[in-house]
Write a structure and sequence with these properties.
It contains twelve helices and 19 strands. By secondary structure, the chain is α/β, with parallel strands linked by helices. Helix 9 links the parallel strand 9 and strand 10. Helix 8 runs parallel beside helix 9. It is globular, with a radius of gyration of 23 Å.
Length: 470
Protein backbone atom coordinates (compact mmCIF):
# COMPACT_ATOMS: atom_id res chain seq x y z
CA UNK A 1 0.00 0.00 0.00
CA UNK A 2 2.95 2.38 0.48
CA UNK A 3 5.86 0.78 -1.40
CA UNK A 4 8.52 3.14 -1.91
CA UNK A 5 1.34 9.62 -22.43
CA UNK A 6 -1.51 7.37 -22.85
CA UNK A 7 -4.47 9.39 -21.63
CA UNK A 8 -4.60 13.12 -20.98
CA UNK A 9 -7.55 13.62 -18.69
CA UNK A 10 -9.47 16.80 -18.14
CA UNK A 11 -8.07 17.16 -14.64
CA UNK A 12 -4.68 18.23 -15.97
CA UNK A 13 -5.94 20.95 -18.27
CA UNK A 14 -4.50 23.55 -15.93
CA UNK A 15 -3.26 26.08 -18.42
CA UNK A 16 -6.73 27.05 -19.54
CA UNK A 17 -8.32 26.55 -16.13
CA UNK A 18 -10.73 24.10 -17.74
CA UNK A 19 -12.00 20.90 -16.22
CA UNK A 20 -14.86 18.86 -17.63
CA UNK A 21 -16.26 16.32 -15.21
CA UNK A 22 -18.29 13.25 -15.99
CA UNK A 23 -21.42 15.02 -14.89
CA UNK A 24 -20.98 18.74 -15.19
CA UNK A 25 -19.64 21.02 -17.89
CA UNK A 26 -17.07 23.40 -16.44
CA UNK A 27 -15.97 26.67 -17.97
CA UNK A 28 -13.72 29.54 -17.01
CA UNK A 29 -15.13 33.02 -16.84
CA UNK A 30 -12.78 34.23 -19.57
CA UNK A 31 -13.65 31.37 -21.91
CA UNK A 32 -16.11 32.01 -24.67
CA UNK A 33 -16.99 28.46 -25.65
CA UNK A 34 -20.54 27.28 -26.20
CA UNK A 35 -20.70 25.64 -22.76
CA UNK A 36 -20.46 29.01 -21.03
CA UNK A 37 -23.36 30.32 -18.98
CA UNK A 38 -25.80 32.82 -20.43
CA UNK A 39 -24.62 36.40 -20.17
CA UNK A 40 -27.20 37.19 -17.49
CA UNK A 41 -26.33 34.20 -15.29
CA UNK A 42 -24.58 36.18 -12.57
CA UNK A 43 -27.31 38.79 -12.36
CA UNK A 44 -30.05 36.17 -12.34
CA UNK A 45 -28.36 34.29 -9.52
CA UNK A 46 -27.82 37.27 -7.26
CA UNK A 47 -30.77 39.59 -7.72
CA UNK A 48 -34.36 39.28 -6.57
CA UNK A 49 -36.60 37.45 -9.02
CA UNK A 50 -40.33 37.21 -9.65
CA UNK A 51 -42.07 34.87 -7.23
CA UNK A 52 -43.06 32.33 -9.83
CA UNK A 53 -43.99 28.77 -8.93
CA UNK A 54 -40.90 26.52 -9.00
CA UNK A 55 -40.91 23.66 -11.44
CA UNK A 56 -38.39 20.96 -12.27
CA UNK A 57 -38.20 19.89 -15.88
CA UNK A 58 -35.62 17.13 -15.39
CA UNK A 59 -35.09 14.33 -14.25
CA UNK A 60 -36.99 11.53 -12.46
CA UNK A 61 -36.95 11.28 -8.66
CA UNK A 62 -36.08 8.40 -6.39
CA UNK A 63 -34.61 6.20 -9.11
CA UNK A 64 -31.60 4.16 -8.05
CA UNK A 65 -28.67 3.31 -10.26
CA UNK A 66 -28.33 -0.46 -10.74
CA UNK A 67 -25.73 -1.68 -8.27
CA UNK A 68 -22.39 -2.54 -9.89
CA UNK A 69 -22.28 -5.50 -7.49
CA UNK A 70 -25.61 -7.08 -8.47
CA UNK A 71 -23.95 -9.70 -10.67
CA UNK A 72 -22.35 -11.43 -7.66
CA UNK A 73 -24.38 -13.50 -5.23
CA UNK A 74 -21.90 -12.88 -2.41
CA UNK A 75 -20.47 -9.53 -3.42
CA UNK A 76 -20.77 -6.16 -1.68
CA UNK A 77 -24.30 -5.25 -0.56
CA UNK A 78 -26.57 -3.95 -3.31
CA UNK A 79 -28.68 -1.99 -0.84
CA UNK A 80 -28.70 1.67 -1.98
CA UNK A 81 -28.04 2.70 1.64
CA UNK A 82 -24.59 1.05 1.49
CA UNK A 83 -21.46 2.88 0.39
CA UNK A 84 -18.16 1.01 0.98
CA UNK A 85 -15.98 2.74 3.61
CA UNK A 86 -12.97 0.61 4.50
CA UNK A 87 -9.69 0.43 6.40
CA UNK A 88 -6.56 -1.26 5.11
CA UNK A 89 -4.88 -4.17 6.93
CA UNK A 90 -6.13 -3.68 10.48
CA UNK A 91 -6.50 -6.08 13.39
CA UNK A 92 -10.06 -7.34 13.91
CA UNK A 93 -9.69 -6.58 17.62
CA UNK A 94 -10.32 -2.92 16.71
CA UNK A 95 -13.36 -3.63 14.55
CA UNK A 96 -15.83 -2.24 17.10
CA UNK A 97 -13.88 1.02 17.34
CA UNK A 98 -13.74 1.36 13.57
CA UNK A 99 -17.42 0.59 13.25
CA UNK A 100 -18.13 3.39 15.73
CA UNK A 101 -16.57 5.91 13.31
CA UNK A 102 -18.45 4.63 10.28
CA UNK A 103 -16.13 1.99 8.83
CA UNK A 104 -18.10 -0.91 7.33
CA UNK A 105 -15.40 -2.97 5.58
CA UNK A 106 -11.97 -4.42 6.37
CA UNK A 107 -9.52 -4.98 3.53
CA UNK A 108 -6.64 -7.38 4.12
CA UNK A 109 -5.99 -9.56 7.16
CA UNK A 110 -2.46 -10.14 8.42
CA UNK A 111 -1.48 -13.76 7.68
CA UNK A 112 -5.15 -14.45 7.19
CA UNK A 113 -7.95 -14.87 7.01
CA UNK A 114 -7.93 -17.09 10.08
CA UNK A 115 -10.97 -18.51 11.82
CA UNK A 116 -10.38 -16.18 14.75
CA UNK A 117 -10.16 -13.09 12.54
CA UNK A 118 -13.34 -13.92 10.68
CA UNK A 119 -15.21 -14.72 13.90
CA UNK A 120 -14.33 -11.35 15.41
CA UNK A 121 -15.31 -9.43 12.29
CA UNK A 122 -18.59 -11.31 12.06
CA UNK A 123 -19.29 -10.55 15.72
CA UNK A 124 -18.89 -6.84 14.99
CA UNK A 125 -20.96 -6.92 11.79
CA UNK A 126 -17.98 -5.94 9.62
CA UNK A 127 -17.61 -6.91 5.95
CA UNK A 128 -14.20 -8.07 4.74
CA UNK A 129 -12.16 -8.37 1.55
CA UNK A 130 -9.38 -10.88 2.05
CA UNK A 131 -7.04 -13.43 0.51
CA UNK A 132 -8.59 -16.57 -0.90
CA UNK A 133 -6.77 -19.04 1.33
CA UNK A 134 -7.97 -22.39 2.67
CA UNK A 135 -9.82 -20.81 5.58
CA UNK A 136 -11.45 -18.25 3.33
CA UNK A 137 -12.71 -20.91 0.94
CA UNK A 138 -14.31 -22.75 3.86
CA UNK A 139 -16.45 -19.62 4.30
CA UNK A 140 -17.70 -19.35 0.71
CA UNK A 141 -21.28 -19.24 1.99
CA UNK A 142 -20.55 -16.49 4.51
CA UNK A 143 -21.91 -13.15 3.30
CA UNK A 144 -19.40 -11.19 5.39
CA UNK A 145 -16.67 -11.94 2.81
CA UNK A 146 -17.63 -9.61 -0.05
CA UNK A 147 -14.60 -10.01 -2.34
CA UNK A 148 -11.27 -11.76 -2.76
CA UNK A 149 -8.11 -9.77 -3.28
CA UNK A 150 -4.79 -9.79 -5.14
CA UNK A 151 -1.51 -8.95 -3.45
CA UNK A 152 -1.06 -5.23 -2.96
CA UNK A 153 0.37 -2.97 -5.68
CA UNK A 154 1.42 -5.56 -8.26
CA UNK A 155 2.28 -2.67 -10.61
CA UNK A 156 5.24 -1.61 -8.44
CA UNK A 157 8.75 -3.05 -8.62
CA UNK A 158 9.08 -6.39 -6.80
CA UNK A 159 12.13 -7.61 -4.86
CA UNK A 160 14.91 -9.69 -6.29
CA UNK A 161 15.35 -12.95 -4.45
CA UNK A 162 11.99 -13.17 -2.71
CA UNK A 163 9.75 -12.56 -5.73
CA UNK A 164 12.07 -12.75 -8.74
CA UNK A 165 14.20 -15.90 -8.56
CA UNK A 166 16.10 -15.95 -11.85
CA UNK A 167 17.02 -13.80 -14.87
CA UNK A 168 15.09 -16.19 -17.10
CA UNK A 169 11.94 -15.69 -15.04
CA UNK A 170 12.19 -11.93 -15.48
CA UNK A 171 12.81 -12.24 -19.21
CA UNK A 172 9.81 -14.53 -19.66
CA UNK A 173 7.58 -12.11 -17.77
CA UNK A 174 8.89 -8.98 -19.45
CA UNK A 175 10.46 -9.84 -22.85
CA UNK A 176 11.82 -6.28 -23.25
CA UNK A 177 13.75 -6.57 -19.96
CA UNK A 178 17.51 -7.16 -20.18
CA UNK A 179 18.72 -10.71 -19.62
CA UNK A 180 21.26 -10.09 -16.88
CA UNK A 181 22.40 -11.63 -13.59
CA UNK A 182 20.15 -10.90 -10.62
CA UNK A 183 22.88 -8.95 -8.84
CA UNK A 184 22.80 -6.37 -11.62
CA UNK A 185 19.19 -5.61 -10.79
CA UNK A 186 20.03 -4.59 -7.25
CA UNK A 187 17.24 -4.99 -4.70
CA UNK A 188 14.34 -4.48 -7.05
CA UNK A 189 13.17 -6.13 -10.24
CA UNK A 190 10.20 -5.35 -12.48
CA UNK A 191 6.55 -5.29 -11.38
CA UNK A 192 4.32 -8.35 -11.55
CA UNK A 193 3.34 -8.64 -15.21
CA UNK A 194 -0.34 -8.06 -16.07
CA UNK A 195 -0.60 -11.52 -17.62
CA UNK A 196 0.22 -13.05 -14.21
CA UNK A 197 -2.47 -10.91 -12.55
CA UNK A 198 -5.00 -12.00 -15.18
CA UNK A 199 -4.06 -15.66 -14.73
CA UNK A 200 -4.42 -15.37 -10.95
CA UNK A 201 -7.75 -13.64 -11.43
CA UNK A 202 -9.06 -16.50 -13.53
CA UNK A 203 -7.99 -18.97 -10.85
CA UNK A 204 -9.69 -16.98 -8.09
CA UNK A 205 -12.90 -16.82 -10.14
CA UNK A 206 -12.75 -20.52 -10.90
CA UNK A 207 -12.60 -21.35 -7.21
CA UNK A 208 -15.43 -18.97 -6.33
CA UNK A 209 -17.41 -17.21 -9.06
CA UNK A 210 -19.91 -15.83 -6.52
CA UNK A 211 -17.64 -12.95 -5.46
CA UNK A 212 -15.75 -10.19 -7.24
CA UNK A 213 -11.97 -9.88 -7.12
CA UNK A 214 -10.56 -6.61 -5.72
CA UNK A 215 -7.15 -5.23 -6.68
CA UNK A 216 -5.24 -2.20 -5.41
CA UNK A 217 -2.66 -0.53 -7.64
CA UNK A 218 0.08 1.95 -6.73
CA UNK A 219 0.65 5.64 -7.34
CA UNK A 220 1.79 5.08 -10.91
CA UNK A 221 -1.91 5.20 -11.77
CA UNK A 222 -1.83 8.97 -11.23
CA UNK A 223 1.90 9.66 -11.61
CA UNK A 224 3.65 8.34 -14.71
CA UNK A 225 7.11 9.31 -13.44
CA UNK A 226 6.85 7.23 -10.26
CA UNK A 227 10.27 5.49 -10.09
CA UNK A 228 8.87 2.79 -7.83
CA UNK A 229 7.74 0.97 -10.97
CA UNK A 230 11.33 0.23 -11.96
CA UNK A 231 11.73 -0.49 -15.67
CA UNK A 232 7.99 0.18 -16.17
CA UNK A 233 8.20 3.80 -15.04
CA UNK A 234 6.51 6.06 -17.62
CA UNK A 235 4.60 3.08 -19.03
CA UNK A 236 0.94 3.94 -18.26
CA UNK A 237 -0.14 1.60 -21.06
CA UNK A 238 0.43 -1.27 -18.61
CA UNK A 239 -2.70 -0.28 -16.70
CA UNK A 240 -5.04 -1.03 -19.58
CA UNK A 241 -3.92 -4.64 -19.10
CA UNK A 242 -3.75 -4.66 -15.29
CA UNK A 243 -7.41 -3.67 -14.93
CA UNK A 244 -8.43 -6.79 -16.83
CA UNK A 245 -7.31 -8.82 -13.83
CA UNK A 246 -9.96 -7.77 -11.30
CA UNK A 247 -13.60 -6.76 -10.94
CA UNK A 248 -13.15 -3.86 -8.49
CA UNK A 249 -10.11 -1.66 -9.12
CA UNK A 250 -8.53 0.53 -6.46
CA UNK A 251 -5.36 2.58 -6.17
CA UNK A 252 -3.46 4.77 -3.71
CA UNK A 253 -1.46 7.99 -3.75
CA UNK A 254 -0.62 10.08 -0.66
CA UNK A 255 0.23 13.70 -1.51
CA UNK A 256 0.81 14.87 2.09
CA UNK A 257 3.16 12.02 3.00
CA UNK A 258 4.98 12.12 -0.35
CA UNK A 259 8.21 14.16 -0.44
CA UNK A 260 8.60 14.39 -4.24
CA UNK A 261 7.70 17.90 -5.44
CA UNK A 262 5.67 16.52 -8.35
CA UNK A 263 3.19 15.04 -5.86
CA UNK A 264 3.72 16.85 -2.53
CA UNK A 265 0.38 18.43 -1.52
CA UNK A 266 -0.96 18.04 -5.06
CA UNK A 267 -4.29 16.77 -3.79
CA UNK A 268 -5.89 16.95 -7.25
CA UNK A 269 -3.85 13.88 -8.17
CA UNK A 270 -6.06 11.72 -5.94
CA UNK A 271 -9.19 12.15 -8.13
CA UNK A 272 -7.03 12.21 -11.25
CA UNK A 273 -6.11 8.57 -10.65
CA UNK A 274 -9.78 7.72 -10.16
CA UNK A 275 -10.61 9.35 -13.48
CA UNK A 276 -7.84 7.47 -15.27
CA UNK A 277 -9.05 4.13 -13.92
CA UNK A 278 -12.58 4.91 -15.07
CA UNK A 279 -11.20 5.58 -18.54
CA UNK A 280 -8.96 2.50 -18.57
CA UNK A 281 -11.90 0.29 -17.61
CA UNK A 282 -14.31 2.01 -20.04
CA UNK A 283 -16.48 2.75 -16.98
CA UNK A 284 -17.32 -0.95 -16.80
CA UNK A 285 -15.93 -1.68 -13.34
CA UNK A 286 -16.40 0.04 -9.96
CA UNK A 287 -13.40 2.13 -8.95
CA UNK A 288 -12.35 2.59 -5.31
CA UNK A 289 -9.36 4.48 -3.93
CA UNK A 290 -7.21 4.71 -0.82
CA UNK A 291 -6.83 7.98 1.09
CA UNK A 292 -4.17 8.97 3.63
CA UNK A 293 -5.30 10.06 7.09
CA UNK A 294 -2.14 9.59 9.21
CA UNK A 295 1.46 10.88 9.13
CA UNK A 296 2.78 7.43 8.26
CA UNK A 297 6.16 8.74 7.10
CA UNK A 298 6.80 11.26 9.90
CA UNK A 299 5.00 13.44 12.41
CA UNK A 300 5.41 16.55 10.24
CA UNK A 301 3.38 14.94 7.44
CA UNK A 302 0.00 14.64 9.10
CA UNK A 303 -2.89 15.40 6.75
CA UNK A 304 -5.36 17.84 8.27
CA UNK A 305 -8.98 16.74 8.70
CA UNK A 306 -9.87 19.30 6.02
CA UNK A 307 -7.43 17.73 3.56
CA UNK A 308 -8.78 14.25 4.25
CA UNK A 309 -12.33 15.44 3.66
CA UNK A 310 -11.26 17.16 0.45
CA UNK A 311 -9.43 14.11 -0.90
CA UNK A 312 -12.38 11.86 -0.12
CA UNK A 313 -15.04 14.08 -1.67
CA UNK A 314 -12.92 14.95 -4.72
CA UNK A 315 -12.59 11.19 -5.28
CA UNK A 316 -16.33 10.57 -4.96
CA UNK A 317 -17.15 13.53 -7.20
CA UNK A 318 -14.78 12.12 -9.79
CA UNK A 319 -16.49 8.72 -9.68
CA UNK A 320 -15.01 6.65 -6.85
CA UNK A 321 -17.49 4.02 -5.61
CA UNK A 322 -15.59 3.11 -2.42
CA UNK A 323 -13.22 4.84 0.02
CA UNK A 324 -10.37 3.04 1.83
CA UNK A 325 -8.40 4.72 4.62
CA UNK A 326 -4.70 4.04 5.08
CA UNK A 327 -4.33 4.35 8.85
CA UNK A 328 -0.85 3.12 9.81
CA UNK A 329 2.00 5.17 11.30
CA UNK A 330 5.62 4.03 10.80
CA UNK A 331 7.67 6.98 12.06
CA UNK A 332 8.80 7.88 14.65
CA UNK A 333 7.22 4.66 15.99
CA UNK A 334 4.97 2.00 14.54
CA UNK A 335 1.26 2.37 15.30
CA UNK A 336 -0.98 -0.04 13.44
CA UNK A 337 -4.22 1.78 14.30
CA UNK A 338 -2.80 5.26 13.80
CA UNK A 339 -6.19 6.73 13.00
CA UNK A 340 -7.68 5.53 16.28
CA UNK A 341 -4.67 6.94 18.15
CA UNK A 342 -5.39 10.43 16.75
CA UNK A 343 -8.52 11.56 18.58
CA UNK A 344 -9.06 14.67 16.45
CA UNK A 345 -8.68 12.80 13.17
CA UNK A 346 -10.81 9.87 14.30
CA UNK A 347 -13.63 12.26 15.22
CA UNK A 348 -13.35 14.11 11.90
CA UNK A 349 -13.28 10.88 9.89
CA UNK A 350 -16.32 9.67 11.82
CA UNK A 351 -18.25 12.82 10.90
CA UNK A 352 -17.13 12.49 7.27
CA UNK A 353 -18.14 8.82 7.11
CA UNK A 354 -21.57 9.57 8.58
CA UNK A 355 -22.13 12.23 5.94
CA UNK A 356 -21.19 9.79 3.18
CA UNK A 357 -23.38 7.03 4.62
CA UNK A 358 -26.32 9.41 5.04
CA UNK A 359 -25.92 10.39 1.38
CA UNK A 360 -25.45 6.81 0.14
CA UNK A 361 -28.93 6.65 -1.51
CA UNK A 362 -28.06 9.85 -3.36
CA UNK A 363 -24.58 8.64 -4.34
CA UNK A 364 -26.06 5.37 -5.59
CA UNK A 365 -28.63 7.16 -7.74
CA UNK A 366 -27.90 7.90 -11.42
CA UNK A 367 -25.31 10.50 -12.28
CA UNK A 368 -26.92 13.15 -14.47
CA UNK A 369 -24.66 14.03 -17.37
CA UNK A 370 -24.72 17.42 -19.02
CA UNK A 371 -27.33 18.72 -16.59
CA UNK A 372 -25.20 21.56 -15.22
CA UNK A 373 -22.40 23.98 -15.94
CA UNK A 374 -20.13 25.62 -13.40
CA UNK A 375 -17.93 28.61 -14.16
CA UNK A 376 -14.79 29.23 -12.11
CA UNK A 377 -13.61 32.82 -11.67
CA UNK A 378 -10.01 31.64 -11.24
CA UNK A 379 -8.51 30.09 -14.35
CA UNK A 380 -6.01 28.19 -12.18
CA UNK A 381 -8.68 26.60 -9.98
CA UNK A 382 -11.25 24.58 -11.91
CA UNK A 383 -14.40 23.47 -10.11
CA UNK A 384 -15.61 19.94 -10.64
CA UNK A 385 -19.15 18.85 -9.84
CA UNK A 386 -21.30 15.74 -9.57
CA UNK A 387 -25.06 16.09 -10.09
CA UNK A 388 -27.70 13.70 -8.70
CA UNK A 389 -31.47 13.69 -8.24
CA UNK A 390 -33.12 11.88 -5.33
CA UNK A 391 -36.57 12.14 -3.75
CA UNK A 392 -37.44 15.36 -5.54
CA UNK A 393 -34.24 17.22 -4.64
CA UNK A 394 -31.29 17.99 -6.87
CA UNK A 395 -27.84 17.45 -5.36
CA UNK A 396 -24.72 19.19 -6.62
CA UNK A 397 -21.47 18.04 -5.02
CA UNK A 398 -18.70 20.47 -5.99
CA UNK A 399 -14.93 20.69 -5.41
CA UNK A 400 -12.29 23.32 -6.09
CA UNK A 401 -9.62 21.22 -7.76
CA UNK A 402 -6.55 23.32 -6.96
CA UNK A 403 -5.13 25.27 -4.02
CA UNK A 404 -6.55 28.65 -4.96
CA UNK A 405 -9.66 30.59 -4.01
CA UNK A 406 -12.36 31.02 -6.63
CA UNK A 407 -16.03 31.82 -7.16
CA UNK A 408 -18.27 29.26 -8.78
CA UNK A 409 -21.28 30.26 -10.88
CA UNK A 410 -23.62 27.29 -11.33
CA UNK A 411 -26.41 26.78 -13.85
CA UNK A 412 -28.57 23.67 -13.63
CA UNK A 413 -30.97 22.84 -16.42
CA UNK A 414 -34.60 22.16 -15.68
CA UNK A 415 -34.91 24.08 -12.39
CA UNK A 416 -37.42 26.87 -12.89
CA UNK A 417 -38.44 29.39 -10.26
CA UNK A 418 -37.18 30.27 -6.79
CA UNK A 419 -35.55 27.59 -4.68
CA UNK A 420 -32.90 27.27 -2.00
CA UNK A 421 -29.69 25.28 -1.90
CA UNK A 422 -28.93 23.91 1.53
CA UNK A 423 -25.14 23.64 1.89
CA UNK A 424 -24.90 20.35 3.74
CA UNK A 425 -22.85 20.42 6.92
CA UNK A 426 -22.28 24.19 6.78
CA UNK A 427 -25.48 25.56 8.38
CA UNK A 428 -26.22 27.97 5.52
CA UNK A 429 -28.45 28.29 2.48
CA UNK A 430 -28.09 29.92 -0.93
CA UNK A 431 -30.88 31.37 -3.04
CA UNK A 432 -31.34 29.63 -6.38
CA UNK A 433 -33.30 31.20 -9.22
CA UNK A 434 -34.01 29.25 -12.39
CA UNK A 435 -31.25 26.81 -11.45
CA UNK A 436 -28.57 29.49 -11.08
CA UNK A 437 -26.52 30.31 -8.01
CA UNK A 438 -23.07 31.54 -6.96
CA UNK A 439 -20.77 30.43 -4.15
CA UNK A 440 -17.22 31.04 -2.92
CA UNK A 441 -14.52 28.36 -2.69
CA UNK A 442 -11.19 28.28 -0.90
CA UNK A 443 -8.44 26.07 -2.30
CA UNK A 444 -9.53 22.41 -2.44
CA UNK A 445 -12.82 23.44 -0.86
CA UNK A 446 -15.84 21.13 -0.94
CA UNK A 447 -19.47 22.28 -0.99
CA UNK A 448 -22.40 19.85 -1.05
CA UNK A 449 -25.67 21.42 -2.21
CA UNK A 450 -29.19 20.07 -1.82
CA UNK A 451 -31.64 22.07 -3.91
CA UNK A 452 -35.31 21.64 -3.08
CA UNK A 453 -38.40 23.47 -4.36
CA UNK A 454 -39.99 25.84 -1.85
CA UNK A 455 -43.41 24.50 -2.71
CA UNK A 456 -44.58 20.96 -2.21
CA UNK A 457 -46.10 18.87 -4.94
CA UNK A 458 -43.56 19.59 -7.68
CA UNK A 459 -43.12 16.46 -9.76
CA UNK A 460 -39.93 16.25 -11.83
CA UNK A 461 -40.06 14.86 -15.33
CA UNK A 462 -37.68 12.21 -16.61
CA UNK A 463 -34.21 12.65 -18.06
CA UNK A 464 -31.67 10.10 -19.14
CA UNK A 465 -29.05 9.37 -16.46
CA UNK A 466 -25.53 8.11 -16.97
CA UNK A 467 -25.16 4.59 -15.69
CA UNK A 468 -22.17 2.32 -15.47
CA UNK A 469 -21.66 0.43 -18.69
CA UNK A 470 -22.83 -3.15 -18.75
Amino acid sequence: MITKVLLQMALVLVAGGLLVSASCAVVNEEDGNKAALPADATEAATTAAPQEAPTVAQPATGRQQPSPYAKWENGPPTNPNFFPIAVWLQSPRNAAKYKAIGINTYIGLHKGPTEEQLAELKKQGMYVICDQNEVGLKHKDDKMIIAWMHGDEPDNAHPIGTYWKSPEEIKAAWPEAPLQPLEKWGKWGPPVPPKKIIADYELLKQRDPSRPVWMNLGQGVAWDEWVGRGIRTNKPQDYVEYVKGADIISYDIYPVNQDRPQVKNQHWMVPYGVERLIQWTDNRKPIWNVVECTPYSGADRRPSPEVVRSQVWMSIIQGSRGIVYFVHVFNPEFIEAGLLADEEMAKAVGILNKQISDLAPVLNSPTLDRLATVRSSNDKTPINALVKRHDGSTYVFAAAMRDGATRGTFAIQGLVGNMQAEVLGEDRRIEVHNGRFIDEFDGYDIHLYKISPRQAGVRPAAAAPREQAE
